[in-house]
Design goal:
cytoplasm, 3-stranded mixed β-sheet, 7 strands, Gyrase A, domain 2, 2 helices, alpha+beta, 4-alpha-hydroxytetrahydrobiopterin dehydratase activity, single chain, acetylation
């Protein structure tokens, strides 16, 4: 099952299958890709320079800490690749 961060409640809640089926098309439209063989989604973000990439990663890190959920991510100069397992954030 996937989970989602509920900004009103401030916590992670499990998605129902109906919610998942509703949200996944929106995630695909936002260029998130389902990872074959894993219950995960993936997206690569490209930035103008290192400072923009690092700033983005810092903001995500602060939000992830609040959620007690930490994505698997990789960065290289001006890009950031994020793999989120068992989570959909919208």
């Amino acid at each position: 099952m996937r989970t989602v961060f509920n900004t009103q409640a401030g916590k992670i809640q499990t998605l129902t299958m109906e919610e998942r089926e509703h949200i996944l098309p929106m995630m695909r439209n936002a260029q998130w890709v389902e990872v074959v063989g894993r219950d995960a989604i993936y997206k690569e973000f490209l930035f103008k320079d290192f400072n923009q990439a690092f700033g983005f990663m810092s903001r995500v890190a602060l939000q992830a800490e609040k959620m007690d959920h930490h994505p698997e991510w990789f960065n290289c100069t001006c890009s950031c690749k994020i793999l989120i397992q068992k989570t959909i954030i919208y």
